[in-house]
Design brief:
- The protein is an alpha+beta fold.
- It is built from four helices and nine strands, in the order αββαββββαββαβ.
- The chain has helices spanning 2-16, 62-65, 145-152, 184-187; strands at residues 32-37, 52-56, 68-75, 83-93, 129-134, 139-143, 164-173, 178-179, 198-204.
- The chain is globular and about 70 Å long.
């Protein structure tokens, strides 16, 4: 009799006695943007995990001689969540009140930066300009400071140290679902999550 009661209790816990449906149970896999930074193209040392490159204003011809190179792709959870397209947005931003330290400091494991490289939340704002819709991956990009200034309609002569250009993404899944923002923790460069919500390039002036 005791065995029957215990067995009935286990079955009840597993399924039969469930009376509440939770939102998190109706989940589906979602893809995330994947950015590969070309660290060799950065004018100053950086790390791929930091998702930040640098233009060095100390060079007299930096506006046309330096490039910001990176490749856009996506994580698809082992084929369980495909991507129809990724919309790419770009913006020019003035330095934060307290920008990240440079040189970049890595974690004790020497893998990820100890602090995020751009402000959160990483969401598309009215100041972000639509650049293009990507449907074939991977897609490689290369921009000079002059080209980015033209894209965002800013004058390079007004740029100051730690100002930056930032690219953000909206992922469109195969079923048409638009993912316009990911959890902030997923977009934090210091966490090493499999989600690259943004990639950017900062201005420095280091002789």
């Amino acid at each position: 009799m005791k065995r029957l009661i215990i067995l009935s209790f286990i079955i009840c816990l597993a399924s039969a006695c469930k009376t509440v449906d939770y939102d998190w149970e109706d989940f589906k896999y979602a893809p995330t943007p994947k950015v590969t930074l070309d660290v060799e193209s950065s004018a100053l040392p950086t790390f791929a995990s930091a998702k930040v490159s640098f233009f060095n204003m100390a060079s007299p011809d930096y506006a046309t001689s330096q490039t910001f190179n990176w490749t856009l792709d996506f994580y698809d959870a082992e084929g369980r969540a495909g991507v129809q397209a990724i919309e790419v947005f770009v913006s020019f931003n003035r330095r934060e009140g307290v920008p990240p330290v440079y040189p970049i400091v890595l974690s004790l494991a020497q893998v990820h930066p100890t602090e995020r490289q751009f402000p959160l939340p990483s969401m598309i704002r009215p100041t972000d300009r639509f650049y293009e819709r990507v449907t074939e991956f991977p897609k490689t990009y290369s921009f000079t400071p002059s080209e980015l200034a033209a894209l965002t309609e800013i004058n390079l002569s007004t740029v100051a140290v730690n100002d930056y250009f930032l690219f953000k993404f909206i992922v469109i899944m195969e079923d048409g679902t638009r993912i316009v923002q990911y959890n902030d923790n997923s977009c934090d460069e210091s966490r090493g999550e499999l989600c690259d919500c943004r990639v950017g390039v900062r201005f420095k002036n280091i002789p």
